[in-house]
Amino acid sequence: NVAPVSATIGVPGNSAVLTIVDDDPQPTVKFSNSAYAVSEAAGSTTIAVTLSSLSSLPVTVNYATGNSTAIAGSDYTAATGTLTFAPGESSKTFPIAITADALDEENELVDLSLSTPAGATLGTPANASLTITDDDPTPTVQFEKSAFSASEGRDTALITVTLSVPSGKLVTVNYASSDGSATAGADYAAVSGTLTFAPGATRQQIELAILEDTLVEASETIDLALSSPNSAALGEQQSATLTILDNEPSGSQLYLPIVAR
User: Fold this and answer.
1) How many CB atoms lie within 10 A of CB 142?
2) Which of 54, 147, 220, 248 could serve as 216's disulfide partner, Cβ 3.0–4.6 Å?
3) Tell me, what DSSP letter sits at residue 258?
């Protein structure tokens, strides 16, 4: 201290405090990416959150997941919490558990968000998405068996078509009948159309009308085919045969009209 000359030390005394006012802006806190991806089989993933610059003060920010096309409890485990950056830290992560299933399905999205920062402001992106990529094979669609049969006296034959495993997607497949030794319009009513398997369904049936006659005849066959599957692949039994069993008594007489000459 220097003694004053021709003066006295006044109040508050011979010492003072100089405050250096910080002029640096607060850092921003944000996701490290706007989009993340993880395989359904991975079990879990970590999401990174970063500061734009180092801070000498603690920084906190809340995080949360939300349903988009993925559903918490079925596709992933919901996660919420608070990240704390100690002075000098610039990156933190939080985990998300992923739930595997056996369904072939579309890739699914989880919404990610940051909120309520302290010691920082929200940067961009403060919202992001996590894509859960499906790892399940495409199911096959085919006839339940390669050969079906129905009695001529039965009005309708039911032909079963199956998926190898349940699917999380809507599955469709076209079907059609064609003449083998049977003739459409005389022995059966031709059919064609599209079968639709709702998500989770594995069985559908084709209805085919059998036409009655009074002729004693050999068994006759109808050819069946599947084509143009959507969200599935054709299996080995993509074609089948329906045999129409004659129902006339074996001792019946076959009378032909007599034509005069």
Assistant:
1) 22
2) 248
3) P
Report the C-alpha gap between 13 and 218 in whole angstroms.
Answer: 125
pTM score of the predicted model: 0.75
> pLDDT per residue over 194-244, tens digit each?
999 999 999 999 999 999 766 666 889 999 999 999 999 999 999 999 999
pLDDT average, residue stretch 179-201: 96
Annotate 61-121 with DSSP letters as a single string.
EEEEEEESSS-BTTTB---EEEEEE-TT--EEEEEEEB---S-B---EEEEEEEEEEESSE
C-alpha of 80 from chain center? 24
Q: What is the pLDDT of residues 110-139, one digit of tens each?
A: 999 999 999 999 999 999 999 999 999 999
Helix, strand, or coil (residue 178): strand
**Which of left, alpha, beta for 78 (phi over 0: left; psi -120 to 50: alpha)?**
beta
Query: What gap in Å lies between CA 204 and CA 173, rounded to an integer?
Result: 10
Query: Do residues 123 and 25 make contact, with C-beta atoms less than 8 angstroms apart?
Result: no
